[in-house]
Amino acid sequence: MQTKRSTYRHRWLPYLLLAPQLAITLVFFIWPASQAVKSSFERTDAFGFKTTFVGLSNYARVLADPGYLNALGRTAIFAVSVTVLSMGVALLLAVCVNRVIKSARFYTTLLVWPYAVAPVVAGVLWWFLFNPTIGLLPHLLDWFGINWNHRVSGTQAMILITIAAAWKQISYNFLFFLAGLQSVPHSLIEAAAIDGATPFKRFWTIVFPLLSPTTFFLMIININYVMFDTFGVIDATTAGGPGTATMTLVYKVYTDGVAGLNIGSSSAQSVILMGIVILLTFIQFRYVERRVNY
Amino acid sequence: MVENRRFLNVLTHLVLIIGVLVVAFPVYVAFIASTHEAGAFVRGVIPLTPGDHFWATYSQMLGSGWQVAGAPPVWLMLANSTIMALAIAFGKITISILSAFAIVYFRFRFRLLAFWIIFITLMLPVEVRIIPTYAVVANLGMLNSYAGLTLPLIASATATFLFRQFFMTVPEELMEASRVDGAGPMKFFKDILLPVSITNIAALFVIMFIYGWVQYLWPLLVTTQEDFYTIVLGIKRLMASSDRVPAWNLIMATVTLAMVPPVMVVLLMQKLFVKGLTETEK
After folding, report:
1. What is the number of domains present in chain B?
2. Above 50 in pLDDT, residue B221?
3. Chain A touched by B271 (CB under 8 Å)
4. More confidently predicted of A258 and A186
5. Among residues B224, B58, B46, B230, which one has the least CA distance to residue B153?
6. B71 falls within a domain
7. Would you say residue A35 has pLDDT above 90?
8. Which parts of the chain span the membrane according to its record (chain B) (predicted)?
């Protein structure tokens, strides 16, 4: 790893400078994570007196549990829907803002602020709009003969959390797509225009392929967001229900560990989640490296 | 654009206007709801035009709060959120700028090891280690305290990386010149490195402030006393009691108040916000 051409040498100063961050990292990250790994191999009896080493049996039970596989499937559907919805809308808006030169800044301002809205708040806002008794949208849907009640219908509950989670993420995707669009060389577009390509053809054959690094990067970030940051959205709207229709992996770790106090199973689930994060981080870094050479 | 197409230009603006309206709509509805009296929600649909209870609702929530729901006054929760967000932003920036300085400008044993220990935190968001981290904080006696709320969220590899990347682009000559002039490392840090990093610090501050403000799962676990409720957590508590007393106007006033500070930060410091966002995530 690089340093500067010339560096300082000092007996204790660098350690002192690193101490605060290392202390916090060790106490609140490394130690708890290693505890999670440790207790994922153990089982504690019902009274909490005895802890025995049980090998991989927690993992085996988690992976054989239909509830866990259900949560895994729900999370996958949720992640794909939110990613597609929020990235699609964000790309459309970014393309439009990139076209209007004079008012670009104005529109950008009006589109970026939801980034600052807490996931819980996003959940509450959409939950209010979709409230089966007084909500506005169920009334509109009623005209079309759709009976909306996300407290009963699992599909509708899923749609609700997808919209709320995607709504909050649009601003983020929008900013990155806009930055990507602004770095597309103008000469390429002009050349295509001279060749008689229509704006739509130009977009699909030139702009969109050039955006692919941004798109890929955003896909990873969005999956990460859906997996970990949507806890608040779910807790505020459906709390995993009805039944387990909107139970995601993180929500299940929470309900099993905090509400159910099943530490062994919850730890095994945490460790599996860490594995997923490590995989996502790895993919992201591989991609960043490749893009540097791009 | 390359050519001027009237139809396409109109369509572009149309899409943007619809987009802006759809994005703003839920917030508009929430705000309108907060200007009505509680009785307005008993029958029919949510109203879409402003009511005349704006002052009544907001002064009640900011002042005494909503006693029935067991939530503290909103000003207290806003203060808690502000303290938490500021502490996280200050804390993250301070510890990561110091460690990035050590990693870039010093040569010492275990440098690589330190780097990797910090790097690993990237892979451990609080959501995946909820229960063991909670146990650590409980054992340290930090439940229901500002330290318990903020310290576990302060360590951040992202900020350290950002500063490391930035320090690598600072011209070598600055450090060499200051050394020739006889300045030690800390003097160089204070008088030269900090001043040239100020824009990066500010951009990161905006992002970290928002990060701290929107935290939910962690406050939910470590605070059981109302005195330490953050506003985001308070909303959930109000919602939980809304089955009994559906005081939508009060809930939506709290929701509105919870959004104002971070949204203002984004709007007023848009340039820094965009810079911070695009640089921390890359």
Report:
1. 1
2. yes
3. no
4. A186
5. B230
6. yes
7. no
8. 7-33, 83-106, 113-137, 143-163, 192-214, 247-269
Determine the 3-state secondary structure of A242 from DSSP.
coil
The Cα–Cα gap between A15 and A28 comes to 19
Q: How far apart are CA B1 and CA A20, in angstroms?
A: 52
Q: What is the DSSP letter of A77?
A: H
Would B1 be classed as within a structural domain?
A: no
Mean pLDDT comparison of A69-83, A133-147, B34-48, highest-scoring range = A69-83
List the 131-160 stretch of A: residues with Cβ below 8 A of B.
131, 134-136, 139
Is A253 in contact with B217 (Cβ distance < 8 A)?
Answer: no
Q: pLDDT confidence of B280, banded at 50, 70, 90?
A: low
Query: DSSP string spanning B132-185?
Result: HHHHHHHHTT-TTSHHHHHHHHH--HHHHHHHHHHHHHS-HHHHHHHHHTT--H
Domain presence at residue B170: yes
Burial of residue A279 (CB within 10 Å: 0-12, 13-18, 19+) is exposed
Closest residue by Cα to residue A253 from B107, B136, B132, B140? B132
A185 and B CB contact within 8 Å: no
The CATH number of residue B159's host domain is 1.10.3720.10
Interface of A with B in 215-244 (CB under 8 A): 221, 228-229, 231-232, 235-236
Helix (H) or strand (E) holding A194: helix A186-194
Question: Quick one: which of B112, B133, B113, B137 has its CA closest to B124?
Answer: B133
What CATH superfamily classification does A57-184+213-293 receive? Answer: MetI-like (1.10.3720.10)
In chain B, whose CA is at the least distance from the CA of A261?
B131
Tokens of B235: 């909303």
Give pLDDT, residue A73: 92
Residue range B221-233: average pLDDT?
A: 86
Phi, psi of B3 (to 5 degrees): -125, 165
Mapped onto helix, strand or coil, the DSSP state of residue A48 is coil
B209-229 mean pLDDT: 88
If you average pLDDT over each of A117-121, A144-148, B46-50, B62-66, which comes out highest?
A117-121
Residue B106 backbone phi and psi in degrees, to 5: -125, 155
State whether residue A53 is helix, strand or coil.
strand
